[in-house]
Predict the structure.
Amino acid sequence: MSQNNLITVTIRSHVPPSADVKDFQFGKPFQLGLEYNANLQALLQKLFPENIKDLGFIAVNGKLAARDRSLLEGDVIYIYSLVAGG
Amino acid sequence: MQKILRIKTNTKAVLFEEVKTEYAMLGGRGLIAKILNDEVDPKCDPTGPENKLIVCGGLLNGTMLPCTGRLSVGGKSPLTGGIKEANAGGTAGQMLGKLDIKAIIFENKPADNKWSILKIDQDKAELLPADKYVGMGNYALSAELRKDFGDKIGIVSVGVAGERGYRNSTLQVNDMEGNPVRAAARGGLGSVLGSKGIKAIVLDVTGAANVEYADKEKFVAANKKFIAAVKAHPVTGGMFPNLGTAGLVNMINGLGALPTNNFSDGRWDKAENISGEKLAEMQSTRGGKNGHRCMPGCVVCCSNVIHDEKGNYVTSSLEFETIALAGSNIGIDSLDVIAKFDRLCDDFGIDTIETGGTLGVCMEAGKMQFGDGEAALKLLQEMIEGTDFGNILGQGAEVTGKYLGVKRIPTVKGQTLAGYDPRGLKGIGVTYATSPMGGDHTAGNPLGVPTVDPYKKEGQVELSTQMQVFMATCDSLGTCMMILNAPLGEPENLGYFLEIMSGKFDGEWDPDKLFGIGVQTIALEKAFNKGAGFTAKDDKLPSFMYTEVLPSTGTVIDFTEEDMAMAIPF
Ligand code: SF4
């Protein structure tokens, strides 16, 4: 696949991915290259194959996002666990 | 053998009583609800002699289960006019367990109008004159009491706000460092203890609690497995120790439910400046701390210690609710200003949520501009100084809003809503409206359940009911919700917890029996509120939320009175 077919998104996750993600640090931003036109659900399945059930709200660019949302170059994705307020 | 300590403040009598058999399986919020139903006329004046202030630990207090030493306080609330239980971490709850005291009941009013402190150690309980402590803020009071009675004491105190009868006043509990920073904040219960002429409760005890277990081996084995699950969970082992509850700022902003400019929006472009991530970054260079524990033995450590830019201690713990109500809700994007606000509130003894809501309606009325941190701290100072307007502010957001002619007042049953706009998280709207506690997120926060759309009303009544029962159970066990909420979602962990209950109390425990504790508690609370004159018509959200679209989500509140009546049907 050519470079043109890749997009780069920034991810900040409060759930540790069950897949091996280089340089993952809890809640710290990291970048990931994805195929053009990847959607959120595909990304989540890739990162959390074993623990996708732990995920709660996902926000893209600061807004609650549906799981079938297509991802675009430069998107910032926040991944939260199931949580109760404090 | 556990006992009840009854303080007759009119005669200064201090009496130990046996625990009634029917109270044996009650603790914390459940015990408070039972005693209030048994002993207090629900129609009474909350700061009059007929109301009582109850202080107690939960059913599991003193056991080896971590995060289980929360101190519950309760009475008829001067803010809501209904029953109220508020609880706090810190050191005093566990100490009450070590002293084998199931509950302290303060009743009547001092005939001589004199202030006292209640001092309890292993040998005796006594009322001591408090003249030298009256008028002190909680920080100075805590330092003075530690000087007088030693630095290992546990303290529960009221600030000047509680002395003055402010309806937003708290009871403050000291943390492990001795700072008076853990607040039983909601409902104005500080003014109820103040009305009894009690400035502080001083607990002086060391060693372990003398707890009986039906099967200690079973308890220990299940406890070990449960702790391992808590540490491995992404919320209790990850988000909370790393970011504290402040980690919720970006999440709730992303959801579009972050109260902004007196609940006029749910998403704020400056939220990042007050986020948990930003707070952690600031603290890393200032010597402050995340991952702090408020009580011995906590394994989650959601608390923090906040330092200023010079590295000096300011406050502890800066929580999401405070950041939301004193940050985005009043347009302030400086964590340093919010930290100062928190410190002033803890010291004066007032609820940060109620105070943030009060400043929000002042800004709406044009008393100052949204975002003007200096003006916000000045208004707070008016309350502290007790100016005429300050005395109005001390009655909370609803009284202040009405006084200023504001139409958009974010309260339910007289109490300010917490850090979640219910139009963007409808389940919490059901909790705010229907809980016997008034607008209070700690009564059941259905946050982060992906199967129920937060913007739609479908499924929210059931979800809120489930969460309200869950929280009433936690509050009756005396266990911090942080340790139970997320982990108990997993059937395996729930199994360990049922084993813990069986190891402590004997018999078979299933989910119905465990959560039956919460059902019974809520039923008692509803009975009290009915006696106080509340009806289904009171179970509603602020009227502007039914008509005014929340820009961040495009939603309004669409629950009918009939929908609300389906919640907590006990
Ligand atoms: S989790 Fe937080 S509130 Fe609960 S006991 Fe620990 S520090 Fe205190």
In short: Chain B touches chain A through 42 residues (CB under 8 Å).
